[in-house]
Specification:
about 130 residues, 4-stranded antiparallel β-sheet, single chain, alpha+beta, about 20% strand, Heat Shock Protein 90
């Protein structure tokens, strides 16, 4: 698994809730890669010139099929035998509460990139969660 690129990045957020989002995204990525040869899950963060902080989780799993991409944030929607379908829905709600958003880019048989995007006003030197 990869590491954060810049340990000085800070966002103003509820550390516990953001931790829950990251745990969910990393576990999803790891599960997606279970049957992938040479599985890779990376977590990294960057600060853009406009002040946005973006935390991303990537994997080289099978990707999200196009026909279900619009459904993955619907509560209780799941493709897993043991899944509850609340992880991504809850993650999206948590990001909305923090004035941010969650963005998904996925290509079948290539992998998935999920980005947590924090607006400039939540990027801060006050509260560090990283």
């Amino acid at each position: 698994m990869g590491v954060l690129q810049d340990s000085n990045l800070k966002v103003e957020a509820d550390a516990y809730l953001l931790e829950q989002v990251l745990i969910n995204l990393v576990l999803n990525a790891m599960e997606a890669c279970e049957n992938t040869p040479n599985p890779k899950v990376k977590v990294y963060a960057v600060k853009k010139f406009d002040g946005q902080v973006i935390i991303s989780v990537t994997d080289n799993g099978p990707g999200i099929p196009e026909e279900i991409k619009d459904q993955i944030f619907i509560p209780f929607f799941t493709t897993k035998k043991e899944g509850s379908g609340i992880g991504l829905s809850l993650s999206k709600q948590i990001m909305t509460l923090h004035g941010g958003k969650i963005q998904v880019n996925s290509m079948e048989n290539k992998g998935t990139l999920i980005s947590l995007i924090f607006k400039e006003n939540t990027a801060s030197t006050k509260t560090s969660i990283l």
